[in-house]
Design a protein that fits this description.
The protein is mainly β. Among the domains are: 161 residues, no CATH class; 122 residues, no CATH class; 105 residues, no CATH class. It contains 4 helices and 34 strands. A hairpin with a 2-residue loop joins β29 and β30. α1 crosses α2. It is elongated and about 125 Å long.
Length: 560
């Protein structure tokens, strides 16, 4: 029995000695190399570390130095100067589930090919780490990341697990090309939903704060978002800048506030921009809202050829459409003001009032082409219940037929300016007066026009102007059918007998002033030249009574 007792004691001593030797060896480079070599040979992972430290002052902690970990044949998932593993009694039954893991000064690289990690911890702590997540739909790169995830139970395809509380900060971060600094994120993961209870960051020289939820279907609910003092310069257009929002299944915005923003991109800019948005959901390329509101003001907004100064917008959003309570702005040297409603049913815009005052506006070079283009699907009808214009200057610099209207006043009622997605004058009545005008280099004074329109015809009941020492008066009708057949009846008294020459009629063999009588018809079809369709008759009487009669057929007057 004494021999058996001595043998047991000897075996225990030998085991303790072996454990002591292993304990000492594992804290050397040789021991670390042997252990990592064994793991690499017998698993699908690759791990290296220089040495393992253990101190009896903290007996439950193992510290690995200069660690590299990843999947065989793949880039390293983790590189860290130090990994501190906190052990507990759980290791008896779950050796790979530890109390804490601290990653210190290194890099985490996560991608779809990242290995499902074999470790678990009640808490994962990061200290001064870098974080990269390319090719995951969120091109994320972060530096100086610190914080914790509790518990950390990683799964295949879910590096943070299905349930966890998160509190992380980053000195700098870039998400889908957008840089930020001093980032703070607090929230939780609950299966496929993510709740961000507190989000803060310095972005584009300004500040971002808010909270949001990511739904299981990939949509987002932003309860509160505030952007202050943003200064953004980008090479993207407005549509490209907002394009990531359109890729989401849905985006519900509860409250969004933008204050004192300055934004600039190719062909667009906004200065001192304030926006307040309430209760708006973007889904399937459209929007939805119940009791929503949007307000905007800025000192300057540029979008393409449009340049607004001090614009103000206030609108209410509902399931039925948009109630535009106010739009006003200084524009083209004058002022524009309107209010109205856009109705989702029928995609119809009805403006209660449109006021234009003091404009100095040069029409775009391609305005005729734009006039003939189809409107977008969301805007099929445009109606102006009341139009008023005062002291406006309108210029067209088309070299083939330029014109200018000076001190133009306008009045209109129930003007339907678009129907079935086509611009036009489809209904209503209007009167235009100007102090002076030039039409294709012919000066006239006090031009005036009165028209009434319906779906079949535009009737111009009065068209007049002073020319030379006399006056021109005309009436006209324009068919609303695609051929736009037009008839004109014009009389001139004591006017230059060749006043019509620059307007397309051949010169008459008379000089000075006289009287004119013209009847003509033609087609103003969009895709065909006017002249070949014109048929008409002109009778001119000179001062001394000489008379000349010319007949035009298919745009040609024989002998001229």
């Amino acid at each position: 029995m004494k021999f058996l007792g001595k043998l047991i004691i000897a075996l225990i001593a030998a085991v303790l000695l072996i454990l002591l030797v292993l304990y000492v060896l594992l804290q050397t480079r040789w021991g670390a190399g042997w252990l990592t070599g064994w793991v690499n040979q017998h698993s699908g992972y690759h791990i290296t570390f220089d040495e393992m430290d253990h101190s009896f002052s903290a007996p439950s902690h193992l510290v690995l130095k200069n660690v590299t970990f990843g999947r065989n044949g793949q880039p390293a998932t983790l590189v860290a100067q130090k990994v501190d593993i906190g052990l507990s009694s759980r290791q008896v039954t779950e050796p790979m589930h530890v109390d804490t893991i601290l990653l210190y000064k290194g890099t985490l690289n996560l991608s779809p090919s990242t290995a499902p990690l074999p470790f678990r911890a009640d808490r994962l702590q990061l200290s001064d780490m870098a974080f990269n997540s390319p090719k995951t739909g969120w091109d994320l790169s972060a530096q100086r990341v610190s914080g914790g995830i509790s518990p950390w139970l990683p799964e295949a395809g879910k590096i943070l697990g299905s349930k966890a509380d998160i509190a992380l900060s980053a000195g700098s971060l870039t998400l889908n090309g957008m840089p930020a600094s001093n980032v703070l994120v607090q929230g939780e993961i609950n299966n496929n939903e993510v709740t961000i209870t507190n989000l803060g960051a310095d972005i584009a020289s300004g500040a971002l704060t808010g909270n949001a939820r990511r739904l299981a279907n990939g949509g987002w609910v932003v309860d509160n978002l505030r952007l202050s003092d943003i200064r953004l310069q980008t090479a993207k257009s407005v549509s490209d800048l907002l394009q990531p929002l359109t890729t989401l299944p849905s985006l519900a915005l509860g409250r969004v506030d933008v204050t004192d923003a300055r934004l600039e991109g190719p062909g667009w800019a906004a200065t001192d921009l304030d926006i307040s948005l309430r209760n708006l959901t973007l889904v399937n390329g459209s929007w939805q809202s119940d009791d929503g509101k949007v307000s905007m003001n800025a000192s300057e907004v540029v979008y393409g050829s449009l340049h607004f100064l001090d614009p103000i917008v206030n609108a209410d959003l509902s399931a039925q459409g948009v109630a535009l309570r106010q739009f006003s702005s200084r524009w083209e040297g004058g002022m524009v003001r309107t209010s109205g409603v856009w109705q989702r049913a029928g995609n119809a815009l009805t403006l209660d009032e449109l006021a234009l005052a003091g404009l100095e506006y040069t029409l775009p070079a391609d305005w005729k082409k734009r006039w003939q283009e189809k409107l977008p699907a969301w805007l099929q009808t445009v109606t102006v219940k009341k139009l008023s214009g005062s002291r406006n200057l309108i210029i067209d610099i088309d070299p083939d037929w330029p014109f200018q209207l000076t001190a133009l006043d306008a009045w209109g009622n129930n003007l339907q300016l678009a129907r079935n997605g086509e611009w036009g004058i489809w209904g209503g009545n209007a009167t235009l007066n100007a102090a002076a005008a030039t039409f294709n280099r012919v000066d006239v004074r006090r031009p005036s026009l009165t028209l009434n329109a319906n779906p079949s015809t535009i009737a111009i009941s009065e068209l007049s102007a002073f020319a030379g020492q006399g006056m021109l008066q005309a009436t006209a009708t324009i068919s609303q059918l695609p051929q736009r057949m037009t008839t004109v009846s014009l009389n001139g008294r004591a006017v230059p007998v060749n006043v019509l020459h620059n307007w397309g009629w051949p010169q008459v063999p008379l000089e000075g002033d006289g009287n004119l009588q013209l009847t003509a018809s033609g087609s103003l079809a969009a895709d065909a030249p006017l002249r070949p369709s014109v048929n008409g008759q002109l009778q001119a009487t000179g001062k001394s009574g000489q008379q000349v009669q010319q007949i035009m057929q298919n745009g040609v007057v024989p002998g001229t």
